[in-house]
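Severity: low
Component: inverse-folding endpoint
Summary: output formatting inconsistent between runs
Steps to reproduce: submit the following structure tokens with default settings.
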């Protein structure tokens, strides 16, 4: 068979090459094909072939280079050559298979223990160096990699535990500047008659039991913190002349606390300073349980002893360890911290008052609190089970009590919402008709009998039981918590809250306080005061 092209390239003839197939003795034409007229010149065809001959080597070189560089993923049109290059050159991409094989090896060693005799590199560069000099197989490399990761995890965990311990000790200690302030003011009390003047002045004494005024109670031994709380309340009030602050402190701090408010009056508000020793009602007969709490050796050792001895830190999460440390703050066995349960007896002539902690700042007028209808309840408080903050605002009774103890599981519901101390409006008239104080005492006794197995955390758990059925929820905007826990607290939310609470270890007067939250507190510190300046407070 033969193909014949016409000179004009317009026809193709297919003929038989056999000599005997035709009557004329020639090869017969089997098929004749006419080609359409060409629309391009030979010159065009020549140029096209020339351009292709010039470009094709570069295309193949590019795809070869991309393949060698290991480019595996590309979805755009201009990467088409990268994906087709390996196939055009007869090569296959093995990187995906290598990753799968390595994952398979890692799964195998995941259940194996790293031998103690295995020497682990100290750094990544050392690992690379040893990989070059020693021919490890894939399993040996995986074991070395696992050992390095586990060692790093142990070191990180140990560092975080040490950080939590250091933070706990820093939170429990008294800063040098605050200790200086207390000593200097105490000395001033003994040498300056003006620092010893009566608070309030005799003509204002009847107002201390006047229910037309707004009465605040603050129990603390921190003079600087008390000064900030009172100053913030007075400066934020629309009617400061109606504010009366009852500041209660212990015997050793009384002279310094009295000196501060005598030398720095909060006019037009009224400030009364009293020591625990000046309340006739606070006798051993009336508070026997609290005396036992303060003097019980096991309790004192729990709060002041070694916080690590006997603790299983291997299985303890960092968050659980932080909670345990917080629960062991020495303040929880101080009578000052339990005084709020005796408010009806300490202020027998008052009908309503607001109790505040010393780590709060008041940013808004609180007089509307006295107009809230508590619907027959006693304690107006913010609930702490309704919020997005899983550290502070997600607390239910299960977070405070040991529900594996039959006494707790029998009397309490683990899903019941908790509430917050720190800023509470109390109806003392309704309170006096209840047995809240006796319930509080009885549960403290039970916890002592059980060797502190009912709960660990301070004064709130017995209060959660004693005030059960007597709490009226108030709007969360009145009281924002967690500024001593949360470094990521939203600043805009802080600005809007009526009272902000630095509950947690990172108090604003400590070096471990959060810098972006500290200004909300320091704005009420009187840095022009001589005692503040001479003690270098927060410098």
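Observed output (run 2 of 3):
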């Amino acid at each position: 068979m033969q193909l014949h092209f016409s000179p004009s390239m317009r026809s193709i003839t297919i003929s038989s090459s056999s000599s005997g197939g035709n009557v004329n003795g020639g090869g017969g034409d089997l098929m004749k094909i006419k080609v359409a007229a060409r629309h391009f010149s030979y010159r065009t065809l020549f140029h096209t072939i020339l351009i292709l001959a010039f470009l094709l080597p570069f295309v193949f070189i590019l795809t070869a280079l991309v393949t060698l560089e290991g480019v595996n993923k590309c979805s755009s049109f201009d990467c088409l050559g990268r994906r087709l290059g390996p196939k055009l050159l007869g090569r296959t991409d093995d990187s995906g298979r290598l990753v799968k094989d390595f994952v398979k090896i890692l799964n195998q060693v995941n259940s194996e223990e790293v031998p103690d005799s295995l020497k682990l590199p100290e750094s990544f560069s050392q690992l690379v160096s040893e990989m070059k000099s020693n021919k490890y197989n894939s399993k040996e490399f995986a074991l070395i990699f696992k050992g390095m990761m586990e060692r790093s995890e142990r070191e990180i965990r140990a560092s975080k535990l040490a950080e939590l311990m250091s933070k706990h000790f820093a939170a429990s200690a008294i800063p040098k500047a605050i200790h200086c302030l207390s000593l200097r003011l105490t000395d001033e009390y003994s040498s300056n008659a003006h620092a010893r003047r009566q608070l309030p002045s005799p003509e204002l004494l009847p107002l201390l039991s006047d229910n037309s005024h707004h009465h605040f109670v603050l129990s603390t031994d921190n003079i600087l913190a008390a000064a900030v709380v009172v100053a913030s309340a007075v400066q934020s009030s629309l009617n400061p002349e109606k504010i009366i602050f009852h500041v209660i402190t212990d015997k050793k701090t009384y002279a310094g606390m009295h000196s501060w408010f005598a030398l720095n009056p909060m006019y037009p508000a009224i400030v009364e300073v009293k020591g625990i020793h000046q309340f006739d009602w606070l006798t051993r007969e009336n508070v026997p349980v609290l005396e036992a709490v303060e003097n019980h050796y096991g309790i004192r050792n729990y709060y002041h002893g070694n916080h690590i001895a006997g603790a299983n830190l291997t299985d303890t999460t960092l968050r659980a360890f932080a909670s345990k440390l917080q629960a062991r703050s020495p303040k929880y066995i101080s009578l000052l911290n339990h005084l709020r349960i005796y408010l009806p007896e300490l202020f027998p002539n008052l009908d309503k008052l607001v109790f505040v902690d010393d780590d709060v700042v008041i940013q808004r007028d609180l007089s509307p609190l006295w107009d809230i209808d508590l619907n027959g309840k006693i304690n107006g408080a913010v609930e702490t089970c309704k919020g997005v903050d899983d550290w502070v605002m997600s607390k239910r009774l299960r977070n405070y009590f040991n529900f594996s103890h039959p006494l707790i599981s029998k009397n309490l519901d683990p899903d019941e919402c908790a509430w917050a101390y720190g800023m509470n409006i109390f109806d003392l008239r309704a309170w006096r008709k209840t047995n809240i104080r006796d319930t509080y005492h009885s549960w403290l006794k039970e916890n002592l009998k059980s060797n502190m197995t009912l709960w660990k955390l301070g004064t709130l758990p017995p209060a959660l039981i004693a005030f059960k059925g007597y709490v009226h929820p108030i709007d969360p905007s009145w009281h924002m918590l967690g500024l001593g826990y949360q470094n990521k607290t939203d600043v805009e939310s802080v600005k809007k809250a009526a009272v902000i609470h630095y509950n947690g270890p990172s108090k604003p007067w400590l070096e471990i306080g959060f810098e972006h939250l500290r200004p909300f507190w320091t704005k009420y510190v009187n840095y022009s005061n001589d005692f503040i300046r001479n003690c270098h407070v927060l410098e």
